[in-house]
Amino acid sequence: AFDVLVIGGGPAGAAAAVYAARKGIRTGVAAERFGGQVNDTLAIENYISVLETDGPKFAAALEAHTRAYDVDIMNLQRAEKLIPAAQPGGLVEVQLANGGSLKAKTVILSTGARWRNVNVPGEAEYKNKGVAYCPHCDGPLFKGKRVAVIGGGNSGIEAAIDLAGLVAHVTVVEFAEQLKADAVLVKKLHSLPNVTVHTNAQTTEITGANGKVNGLRYKDRVTGVEQHIELEGVFVQIGLVPNTEWLKGTVELSKFGEIIVDAKGQTNLPGVFAAGDCTTVPYKQIVIAAGAGATAALSAFDHLIRN
Ligand code: FAD
């Protein structure tokens, strides 16, 4: 059995594995895709001390750092079920999609999250070529340009307010009749001079030319008329979904499906910790996920020496 078994190989999982392995304890990582969301990222300019890198390079560095230690890396392995320890101090079991099963004294869940897609023509084609999901990450790339934000919930309106300070103009496109964000955010949004809001607007296409976004097409759901807006960027803000479906019924989750953790990364199950985008941690960022992974590993080590 492992002392520490990490599920997920993104920034949180890699940091957890490095911290655990440095304690000289038996450490394993099972990940569906080592590197995680970072693999899909173009430029990374906010990982402190690294002025600029790109996603694939960062993912390779995560793996190299983890491989520098005695860590059993099981890549391309999807966890399907977690079985809590039968008695205090017992082993936690994780069952894999390939039929295998892993046992460990402590488990760190770091399965991350995924941005919900709008699934319209152009979205996949222009991903990272004008289509973006993270305003904290990619906002500065659109300085002085025109962008749209799809989604009028809290994350969409926060993104629109944030972007309005950076870009030339922001158009908010919301499917429903009204913006769903908190009233205080909506009020702030309406006070900004360079924002236009379209409600009852169904995005039908993200258009582009020469490999770059050049506009967004939406249908006015009241009149049925199609409109085309010229712009350079589209931020899709219709939800971040934690990869925790497989934990439903075993680990305590928030109403958004995030694993509920305390400041030490402890879940409701003894010996089971969690870190990164799959948890209730505020703000989903690489530096935050990596820090949370370190916290969870140190907490797991603390748990081991006490049990
Ligand atoms: P993830 O990176 O999501 O990793 C999750 C890991 O778990 C993966 O290895 C995955 O394969 C694995 N996994 C999932 N389910 C299972 C399962 N059932 N069994 C086994 N393994 C599983 N943040 C920044 O700080 N700066 C940026 O510039 C930036 N740009 C971004 C650009 C894009 C396009 C995206 C999508 C995100 C960006 N982010 C950025 C956010 C950042 O990537 C995440 O906050 C960070 O990757 C979270 O790390 P994590 O380890 O918690 O999860």
Automatic annotation (TrEMBL):
It comes from the Bacteria. This is Alkyl hydroperoxide reductase subunit F. GO terms for biological process: response to reactive oxygen species. GO terms for cellular component: cytosol; protein-containing complex. Disulfide bonds join 134-137. Coiled coil: none annotated. GO terms for molecular function: flavin adenine dinucleotide binding; NAD binding; NADH-dependent peroxiredoxin activity; oxidoreductase activity, acting on a sulfur group of donors, NAD(P) as acceptor. Homodimer. It comes from Comamonas suwonensis. Its EC number is 1.8.1.-. Its cofactor is FAD. Keywords: Disulfide bond, FAD, Flavoprotein, NAD, NADP, Oxidoreductase, Redox-active center. Belongs to the class-II pyridine nucleotide-disulfide oxidoreductase family. Binds 1 FAD per subunit. NAD(+) binds at residues 146-160. Residues 2-293 form the FAD/NAD(P)-binding domain. FAD binds at residues 3-18, 267-277.
